[in-house]
Structure formats: C-alpha cells, structure tokens
Design a protein that fits this description.
The chain starts with a helix and ends with a helix. It is built from twelve helices and eight strands. The strands form two sheets. A six-stranded antiparallel sheet has the order 3-4-5-6-7-8, with no helix packed on it. Strands 1-2 form a two-stranded antiparallel ribbon. Helices cover 59% and strands 20% of the residues. It is an alpha+beta fold. The protein folds into two domains: 252 residues, no CATH class; 94 residues, no CATH class.
C-alpha cells in the first residue's frame, strides 16, 4: 500500500482534473481522496459496531430481570430496535473521533502520511477527504437525530416505563396554563389514568378584564378526539360590567385547546419529538406560560451541536494523529478517547448551566463546540508547520 501511494502521479493528487470539452475543470475525487474516505467511513462503522456490542452487553446485564419478564418480540423490536440506533447517534461524535484517530495513526505509522506529503500534497489538501467524510456523517447524524430516531423512541420509552422503571408522570396538582390567548385554565388535580381533572375552571379575559368564568366539578379528556373535553356539573358566569348572568348544566361537551401531554411532562418526552414537532411544542408552551420546557430547548440545540461536532472532532483527530510518535497508535488512541470523553462531559456540564437558567440553551450547547474548534485550529496550524 505504501508503494502504491508513493507512485500516485501529481495530477491525481490535485483537487481538480481536466476533462470535458474545452478542458474545463470539474470537481472529482482523486485516488487519495477515495482511499482516505474509504478508510474513514469503514473504521467509523467498525468502531460503532464494536462499541454498540459492548453497550448492549452491559445493558442486558443491567436490565436482565426486565428482559426475562417481557415478551421477546417486544424486547427485540420495541426496545433494541430503537436503543441501538439511539446510542449510536448519541455517541456519534465519539465514534467519529476514534475512527479518525485510529486509521490516521495507522497511516502515519506506516509512513503513508510522509509519502503523501512528499508528493506535494499540503496539509490543507490532505484535510479535504476528512471533511468530506465528516460531512457525510454529519448529514447522517442530522437526519437520524432530527427526524428518524425520535418516533422510534416512543416504543423504547414505553417499554422501559412498563418493564424497567416507570418514569412517566401520571398526575398533577394546581395546574394553571393559558389554553389560548385570553383563556386561562386551572385544575386542582388531574389524574392521567382516567384522564379526569377535578375542580376545573377556565377564565376568559378581554383587554385584561374578565368577561366569563366556566367552572366544573370534573372535566374528562376524550383521547379519541383532539382537544375534546366533557364537563360535569358545570356553571358559566358571564360578566357585563356590574351585571352577571349564570348558566348551569349537568354535562357539557366542548373543545378546549389543551391535552394532558401539555401539562404532564415526563422525563425524556423531548426525545420522542422530531425537530419540527419540538419547535411547535416549544412555541406553544411559551405562549401558554409553561416554565419547564428547558429540556426541550436543550434537546433541540443539542441536535444541531452534535452535527457540527463531526467536523470539529475530525479536525482535532486528524491533527493529533497525522504525525508519527514514539508511543505509536496506542498513545494516539488514548489521547483521542480522553479528548472525546472530555467533550461529552463538557457538553453535559454546560447543559446543566442552561437548566439552572445561567445561560441560554443555544449558548450552553455551543460552548463546547467553540472551545474545541479553537483547540482544533491551534493543533492543525501547529502540525502544518
């Protein structure tokens, strides 16, 4: 392989090749680009499969009682069919970094980097196939995290709530939120098992003045129809200046634009929404005055930050491992693992800042990217010299 790379003609190492009528230059991947890209993506797939095998083994050990209790079909198709892609996508920056470190250290150890540079290829030119590979993985990560994996998380979370540990919120007390502009809903208590609210009331305001109040002993949500509520023992009071009119009844079917998931927010609910659904949910909850939506905002920003991380960690990995060192590949892999885990830890720490209100979710999730981008630029300039 070493002799093959040494013998590559300079024209093949050039980022452009002459072809077509009139000798116009069009973009084409060279032999060098395809070789590095193949090594990059192949190593990434191998690293992902190896790590997922280890993660699955530990997960089986931890949840063995649940797996023995649950039907095998639910374990395979509801849990693992979502669990493995979910963790592969969550740890994608780690796998990208390890892949770059591993195969670049191997190239450097075989003196193939020296042969490439001796052919007149600069470090900037050598970086191009790495960035192409990072772009492919970033696009895959973006597609999975924003659109494909969230719907599959619904079955996984339902499985863990049923067989492992139930983290879903089944009731709420003293619930108050804005159903729509000018309409404020209050519930003394809501029980999710029967979809019933107790001591229900809804006030309608016009120009900051209350114009009517609807109260009911109970209000039951009809899950078969969106926003459909049935009120029992209701009373409607209409206010017109100093005058008041009262209407009473036994039952009233009405449409109120709220549903239980708007105020019963469970852990990991944000992982079940695609990005368009997240944007709509956040916008709707802000309008209603719901306070506990930080997790949803952080999840949205995390998805975008993870996409950019592929480029940043590829730059750092290539800069670290493109030079031959005495410690060999093991030293580079050790450094790579330490840096990648520090990136994940740093992201966790900064997300807690957003949860505590010390910064916005966008800034919290972009701080690690900015810091590690500066590290990557410094390392790349250093190795280029």
């Amino acid at each position: 392989m070493r002799q093959r790379i040494k013998s590559i003609p300079p024209m093949l190492l050039s980022p452009f090749r002459k072809c077509g009528r009139g000798g116009r230059s069009i973009f084409r991947l060279t032999i060098l680009d395809r070789y590095i890209l193949r090594q990059f993506l192949g190593t990434y797939v191998l690293a992902t499969l190896l790590f997922l095998a280890v993660i699955a083994m530990f997960d089986i050990t931890e949840k063995l009682d649940a797996f023995l209790t649950a039907p095998l079909s639910e374990t395979l198709f509801d849990y693992f069919a979502s669990f493995l892609p979910y963790f592969a996508n969550q740890l994608s920056p780690l796998f990208v970094f390890i892949a770059v470190i591993f195969f670049t250290s191997k190239l450097a150890g075989n003196s193939e980097i020296i042969a490439i540079l001796s052919s007149g290829v600069s470090y900037k030119r050598l970086l191009r196939p790495y960035m192409i590979g990072a772009a492919i993985l970033a696009a895959l990560t973006f597609l999975l995290s924003n659109y494909i994996i969230p719907p599959t998380n619904v079955a996984r979370i339902a499985y863990t709530n049923k067989y492992v540990r139930n983290k879903s919120v089944e009731s709420g007390a003293n619930i108050q939120l804005m159903a729509s502009p000018g309409n404020v809903v209050y519930m003394s208590r809501f029980e999710n098992y029967n979809k019933t609210a107790y001591r229900f009331s809804m006030d309608h305001f016009s120009d900051k003045t209350i114009t009517s109040r609807l109260t009911a002993r109970t209000a039951r949500y009809d899950s078969t129809r969106q926003y459909h509520w049935r009120l029992n023992d209701y009373m409607i009071r209409d206010f017109n200046g100093m005058q008041e009119s009262v209407r009473r009844g036994t039952t009233l079917d009405t449409v109120i634009p709220i549903e239980p998931k708007d105020f019963l927010i469970s852990a990991n609910d944000q992982e079940t929404l695609t990005t368009p659904q997240l944007n709509e949910y956040i916008k709707k909850q802000r309008m209603r005055g719901v306070a506990n939506i930080k997790a949803f905002e952080i999840e949205r920003e995390r998805r975008y930050a993870a996409t950019a991380a592929a480029f940043i960690l590829t730059l750092i990995g290539m800069s670290l491992s493109s030079k031959k060192v005495k410690g060999g590949m093991g030293l580079n892999i050790g450094i790579g693992l330490a840096l990648s885990f520090s990136y994940i830890l740093f992201s966790t720490v900064t997300s807690s800042l957003a949860i505590n209100g010390l910064t916005t979710p966008f800034i919290a999730m972009e701080i690690p990217n900015v810091v590690y981008l500066l590290i990557g630029i410094w390392l790349f300039r250093r190795v280029s010299r």
